[in-house]
Write a structure and sequence with these properties.
It contains three helices and five strands; from the N terminus they run E-E-E-H-H-H-E-E. By secondary structure, the chain is mostly beta strands. The protein has one domain. It has a five-stranded antiparallel β-sheet. Strand 4 and strand 5 form a beta hairpin. It starts with a strand and ends in a 5-residue tail after the last strand. The relative contact order is 0.34.
């Protein structure tokens, strides 16, 4: 049995420097837990296009990286909509041990 340690993540709208066209507000968030489970608070939504801009970075942020790695130091991601200029923060909210053989 091989174990690995992964972080659970929260992606939060930190600021909106333009106009909010997708209906997100500062403080809105989604979480990724157990390596692949996405959770959005009940009654809320998260824009698919904002979400897709952060998704490629999440597998790396789930792992401990060398201190000098840029992704270990940086946590802000921008939405691709130039009029919205929505900025999101990726934060680690917990760490868990997972069994590699139980994952695909």
């Amino acid at each position: 049995m091989t174990e690995m340690r992964l972080y659970d993540l929260r992606i939060t709208v930190e600021r909106i420097e333009g106009r909010s066209v997708c209906g997100l507000e500062v403080g809105d968030f989604f979480e990724v837990t157990e390596s692949s489970r996405v959770r959005i608070p009940e009654g809320r939504h998260f824009c698919l296009f904002a979400m897709q801009s952060v998704l490629p970075l999440l597998p790396a942020k789930m792992r401990r990286l060398p201190d000098e790695d840029w992704l270990e130091q940086d946590s802000l991601v921008c939405c691709p909509d130039p009029e919205e200029r929505l900025v999101m923060r990726i934060e680690r909210i917990g760490e868990r041990t997972l069994v590699t053989e139980e994952l695909t």
